[in-house]
Amino acid sequence: MKRMASVVLFLILAASAFLGILDFAHKQAAIKAERQNPSDYVTVYTDIPPGALELLNPVFFEESGIKLNVVYLSTDQLASETSKPDVAPCDIFISSQDSLNKLKENNRLQIFASARTDTALNLFKDEECYWTGIWVDPVIFAVNKDYSLKHPAFQFNWPEVLTIKSVRLSVTDFIAASMAEDLLMCMTEHFGIEETMWYLTEAQKHIVQYGKYLSTPSRMAAMGKCDIGISGFNEAVRTQKENMPLEIVFPEDGSPWYLYGAGISKDAQYPERGQLFLNWLLDSPQYKNLMEKNNFYYIYVNDLAMNGDNRGTTLNFWNLQKKYYDEGKKDLLNQWGEKIRFGGKESD
């Protein structure tokens, strides 16, 4: 009798487990089917790191009645015209300025202008209205607080920071990330090739470490392992939020910048939904607070008013066209790597 009870109990548990798995499979299939049917979605193709756009889904849905279908792709996949059969067609691309320019060149974007896009600075949008910038990540100086207190008269400009050998400096390796590579391109456009390479040759003499990650320079400065880190604003604020002793200083002679933006797909099934989402990104104050609560700290193109830093310096952006071609970027990186990074001193 006991054996029979055990068998019955086992069958009940097995049946329950099977029904649970079956129910889960049905739910997953329903979710997949729903995502493949874009009738209630705006489909976003993006190569930005996962996390930020999911935060916006409930807020955007509450205001618009439309959900976000976020499709994450690599930068190379984003540039490819081949879509996966189980993925809904793109309504709106969200990516870096460089990727958006390539999408425009490949005739994959359509012109879109509105009252919202019109208020973005010309510096941060395509002159023919194929894409509009959303978030700007300026390059700033992340300064160790003790160093700042001991050097109140220090002039935080690019020539001083890059050439004064007593300053222990950290910067992300230019080949480590697209934003770091972009910094080299920005400097070259702003200063010219010869002057940039001279500055970087001088900087090489007092760089204590090239970071492998964008967060490295600001964290090294906060820990006292360098005096000044050349960092993106977003990473520097993240370091500050960890209660680490770091001061963010805006360069007196202006900042390079990295731009994320959006463009409406030429093949969009629901272009009006992509347009609605783009306008919302340019105007909604709710999502800015939500992103900051989740450690995304960008400057918004339609909200550029900022207080100065602790030294009273305001944030000014370099006037850049940022039309960098792959071959030119490759040549500059090779020149820097061969003559400076691995030619100036032994590698880290």
Structural account:
- The protein has 348 residues and is of the alpha/beta class.
- The protein has two domains: 140 residues, Periplasmic binding protein-like II (D-Maltodextrin-Binding Protein, domain 2, 3-Layer(aba) Sandwich), CATH 3.40.190; 155 residues, D-Maltodextrin-Binding Protein, domain 2 (3-Layer(aba) Sandwich).
- Helix content is 45%, strand content 18%.
- The protein is built from 14 helices and eleven strands.
- Strands 1, 2, 3, 4, 5, 6, 7, 8, 9, 10 and 11 form an eleven-stranded mixed β-sheet that branches.
- Helix 2 links the parallel strand 1 and strand 2.
- Helix 2 packs antiparallel against helix 13, helix 8 crosses helix 9 and helix 9 packs parallel to helix 14.
- The chain is globular, with a radius of gyration of 24 Å.
- About 2% of the residues have low confidence.
Helices and strands, with pairings:
Elements: H1 2-36, E1 41-46, H2 52-64, E2 67-72, H3 75-79, E3 92-96, H4 97-105, E4 109-110, H5 115-118, E5 132-144, H6 145-150, H7 158-163, E6 169-172, H8 178-191, H9 193-204, E7 207-211, H10 216-222, E8 228-232, H11 233-241, E9 246-249, E10 257-265, H12 271-281, H13 285-293, E11 299-300, H14 326-341
Parallel strand pairs: 1-2, 1-3, 6-7, 6-8
Antiparallel strand pairs: 3-10, 4-10, 5-8, 5-9, 5-10, 5-11
